[in-house]
Specification:
Keywords: Coiled coil. It comes from Caldovatus aquaticus. InterPro entries: Phasin, Phasin_subfam-1. This is TIGR01841 family phasin. It holds the Pfam family Phasin_2. With about 170 residues, the protein is an all-alpha fold. The protein has two domains: about 50 residues; about 100 residues. It is about 95% helix and about 0% strand.
Amino acid sequence: MASDKTAEVKKLSVEAATATAAGAHQARKLIEDGAAQARATVEKSMEQATKAAEGLFKVANEAVEFGRGNLEAVAKSAQTWTVGVQDLSRQTFAVVQSLTDQALENAKALIAAKSLKEAADLQANFARSALERALSEAARLQEASFRLAEQATAPLAARATLAFEKFGRPLAA
């Protein structure tokens, strides 16, 4: 009877050890599988975060480049405007100087006039020619001013067109 009990205790001990080993093996497998799934999830999350960061950096770089282009357009526009205004100022000064010279010549001719009729004719001719010349020069200067405005705003208009083309369309889904 004691040997039966010993055999039974041994049998129960073997069964308990086998069950414990199987449970430990199953627990280890669950832990390893969980760790593998966690590692895969972390790797996938890192990959998505990297792609998102790369996208943000690309957009930021494009914005910086676009801003740089805008500043270059403003600088070119300002330079064109400055040079053009200087040129228009020189032209205007030359016209005023020429009209003044013409007035002085007319004054000399008036002083030398022999009669009142001759003086009146000289003054009428001067007034007519001075008015025609002033209107002609004003039209020429106005046309030059319009050309200058077009040239000075051309870089800015080009940037506005580019901005509309680049940012005016809907984003791709």
